[in-house]
Amino acid sequence: MSATPDRPDAVLASTGAAARVPRRVIMQQLARRAERIAASMASATPSPEVLPTDVDPDSNRGLGYRLMLQFGFAADQWQYLDALWKRESGWNHLAENASSGAYGIPQSLPGSKMADVAPDWRTNAETQITWGLAYIAARYDNPQGAWGHSQRVGWY
Q1: The pTM is what?
Q2: Cβ neighbours of residue 6 under 8 Å, at least 6 residues apart?
Q3: Fewer CB atoms < 10 Å away: N or C end of the chain?
């Protein structure tokens, strides 16, 4: 059973982001993200963020798409990120796997790893998505790599 926005306590079928990635590697990815954002803010012509037509701009998915682009992933990676996190949590930032303890949109295991981004990891979708994107970049290079691994072994 997958968690849904109306059932955040539902048990999730997948095990989530369980692989060990050294904290320093996650932090390096976060620093690169900050550098890309700073560089884009300094440019005279910022690129527009056009959301896919099926994405509500005020939803966790909308936030995820914008953060994915800010993180430096190409728009064509969206299909993989969206599929991965739809399966993991339904994009529910309160999703918790009762059997494994995996938590949030990326199903971090343990969820407390997301505190590397901010202490509000239990309730803030932006914190969770930012950590999840850094994890994907550090471990799989891009969402397509994470999705492929998840398809093969059932977790990423």
Answers
A1: 0.76
A2: none
A3: N
